[in-house]
TrEMBL record:
Entry keyword annotation includes Transmembrane: yes
Domain of life of the organism encoding this protein: Bacteria
Tagged with keyword Phosphoprotein: no
Pfam family, one: SBF_like
Protein name from the UniProt record: Bile acid:sodium symporter family protein
Transmembrane spans: 37-54, 66-87, 99-119, 131-155, 206-225, 231-255, 283-303
Native organism: Variovorax humicola
InterPro entries: Na+/solute_symporter_sf, Put_Na-Bile_cotransptr
Keyword vocabulary terms for this entry: Membrane, Transmembrane, Transmembrane helix
Length: 336
């Protein structure tokens, strides 16, 4: 029997199990240091494999569609932060201050890549533009997110993440250097990567689970669950739903107002309204103190699941509503 689209996927269940494990059996002392080292290695390997996977053709595909890309970047790095701060007086009382700091961090993250492209494809949108926009958003986020964190998030959190240049430097060394090395080695290992695509998925999900375990272990030892009541978790669901609803509504309205065709509208909606768990959790590990990462990434983890469920339904609605792509190659006529 097929699983309902409204039920969590296996990875979400693994995330929940990892949080539960860290809550009851948090790593401390030598075990915590071991997991920290293992997590750093896993994240480096993850970005190395992503660099090897991303082709230059994918980067160049649709790159001339500059109006679409600028709009996606504006939604990702301007609209979301504006929503996060504009709604703070209304939404922050629903959660704790540390969790709303995580909401603000969520708002300055780059767009997700895999699911944005998958939903664009499902809805019959502009796939080359989605590949280009989502990939460029991830790369741009390496520089933009640390700056926004220092300008917008840290002053409201009472903590510190160092200077923007220091944060960018740490991300470049821990994330982008392995990515660049992987991309340079793509001609040598592309065949291996294609035959063993499951390896990337295993490293992708495994590295995130490791970061979640180490982050929540440190947070639990510092008293995370004593400071986060159930009412705050319920409030966080409301916050994530409101943010996603406003992002989806805004991107749709802006795309139509600016006269984009339906295929481009779909790309804008799915690339401009999503936030990356794969990039966000490693960035949080680099930018924030270990004991604070658990509360910081909690909104991102919840938002990730909600956006997957909502966008799955929305993509199917788009697929039913839009007309067949006009540029599709017509079927060959039989001779005779």
């Amino acid at each position: 029997m097929a699983r309902s689209r409204f039920l969590p996927d296996n990875f979400t269940l693994a995330l929940v199990s990892t949080v539960a494990l860290a809550s009851f059996l948090p790593a401390s002392g030598d075990a915590a240091r071991f997991f920290e080292g293992l997590t750093t290695f896993a994240i480096g390997l993850l970005f190395f494999l992503h660099g090897a996977k991303l082709s230059r053709e994918a980067i160049l595909a649709g790159i001339m569609h500059w109006r679409l890309h600028l709009l996606v970047f504006a939604c990702t790095f301007v609209l979301f932060p504006v929503l996060g701060f504009a709604l703070k007086p209304v939404l922050s009382p629903l959660v704790t201050p540390d969790i709303y700091t995580g909401v603000l961090f969520l708002c300055v993250l780059p767009a997700t890549v895999q699911s944005a492209i998958a939903f664009t494809s499902m809805a019959r949108g502009n796939i080359p533009a989605a590949v280009c926009s989502a990939s460029a958003s991830t790369l741009l986020g390496v520089f933009v997110t640390p700056i926004l964190v220092n300008l917008l998030v840290v002053p409201h959190s009472g903590g510190g993440a160092g200077s923007a240049l220091d944060a960018i430097g740490r991300i470049l060394m821990q994330l982008m250097l392995p990515f660049a090395v992987g991309h340079l080695m793509r001609p040598l290992i592309a065949g291996f990567m294609k035959k063993r695509a499951h390896v990337l998925k295993f490293v992708d999900q495994g590295s995130i689970l490791l970061v979640v375990y180490t982050a929540f272990s440190a947070a639990v030892i510092e008293g995370l669950w004593k400071e986060v009541p159930l009412s705050a978790l319920a409030g966080l669901i409301v916050v994530c739903v409101v943010l996603l609803a406003l992002a989806l509504t805004s991107t749709t309205w802006i795309a139509r107002k600016l006269g984009f065709v339906k295929a481009d509208e779909i790309t804008i909606v799915f690339c401009g309204s999503k936030k990356s768990l794969a990039s966000g959790i490693p960035m949080a590990k680099v930018l924030f103190a270990s004991h604070a990462v658990g509360a910081i990434v909690l909104p991102l983890m919840l938002f990730h699941q909600i956006q997957l469920m909502v966008c799955a339904v929305l993509a199917q609605r788009y697929a039913r509503r839009i007309e067949p792509i006009a540029t599709a190659v017509p079927p060959l006529k039989r001779a005779g």
